[in-house]
Design goal:
By secondary structure, this protein is of the alpha/beta class. It folds into two domains: 96 residues, 3-Layer(aba) Sandwich (Udp-n-acetylmuramoylalanyl-d-glutamate--2,6- Diaminopimelate Ligase, Chain: A, domain 1); 127 residues, Udp-n-acetylmuramoylalanyl-d-glutamate--2,6- Diaminopimelate Ligase, Chain: A, domain 1 (3-Layer(aba) Sandwich). It contains ten helices and eleven strands. The strands form two sheets. It has a six-stranded mixed β-sheet. Strand 9, helix 8 and strand 10 form a beta-alpha-beta unit. Helix 2 packs parallel to helix 3 and helix 5 packs across helix 10. 47% of the residues are buried.
Length: 257
């Protein structure tokens, strides 16, 4: 498939343009030529030297990641950025990135994948950056024990050397039926979860303030790991691209964070 065609199809499916003024990541084709042929696509959560080298070693014609190499306006390609880009140039492997669009997509997104794992129904957008969501909220008909959610993530996700954590607060609901999800670094969206009166907030990593905010609000929190909770989107994209007739490889590089 032509590189331009593939990127356009991904942009359209992920609504990349709708996040253009909201995201510090320039989404879409972040590194690469204007044209080329793609037969094999590698997928990874993070664009880093390790994943770039692994994509080239796998013979990929394109690397697709959630976290890209450029944030904001890059003024110089030196040092670590140069070292990360070098394998892509040497291996003639472009880089396509989808950050916030892949967080919030209702079917392909990270939050959607985690919601599938938890069995959430009656879903609605949650965790807004401007007008666009990066998470979702849903209901568990039979309820979930927050400790069971933590244990499920420990079993089902590749968290590396770390373990999911539960902030289990006295007075918080012992059974969660209303759950809000923002994957990755979602602690700043706890206020929206509190105001929505959810029973459980699930994110990747926390900040110090999250403990007292959630304790005072009487809402339990599960921290599944930044990397681990953001593996769903790239895997979903790999399945989609495979349906389009291309060879795919998912590169696993858990960080433990």
């Amino acid at each position: 498939m032509d590189l331009t065609t593939l990127c356009a199809r991904l942009d359209d499916r992920l609504r990349t343009d709708d996040y253009a003024d909201l995201d510090a990541s320039p989404n879409g084709l972040q590194v690469g030529p204007d044209a080329g042929e793609v037969e094999h696509v590698a997928f990874a959560v993070d664009a880093a030297r390790a994943t770039a080298e692994a994509a080239v070693d796998a013979g990929a014609d394109l690397l697709v990641t959630h976290h890209g190499l450029i944030w904001g306006d890059a003024e110089r390609v030196t040092g670590q950025l140069y070292d990360r880009l070098a394998p892509l140039f040497a291996g003639d492997c472009p880089l396509y990135v989808s950050h916030l669009p892949l967080d919030g997509h209702p079917e392909l997104g990270n939050a959607a994948g985690l919601a599938d794992l938890l069995g959430l129904v009656d879903r609605e957008p949650f965790g807004h950056v401007g007008p666009e969501p990066i998470g979702l909220r849903g209901r568990v008909p039979d309820g979930l024990d927050p400790a069971a959610v933590r244990d499920l993530l420990a079993t089902e996700l590749d968290t590396g050397p770390a373990e999911p954590q539960l902030l289990d607060h006295e007075g918080a609901p012992e059974t969660a039926t209303d759950v809000a999800i923002v994957t990755g670094s979602g602690a700043d969206f706890f206020g929206e979860a509190r105001d929505a009166d959810v029973d459980l907030f699930v994110t990747g990593e926390g900040k110090g303030k999250l403990y007292h905010e959630s304790r005072e609000a009487g809402v339990n929190v599960v921290l599944g790991g930044h990397y681990a909770t953001e593996t769903f989107g790239v895997r979903a994209l790999a399945d989609l691209v495979a349906e389009w007739g291309l060879e795919t490889t998912v590169l696993e590089h858990p960080t433990g964070l």
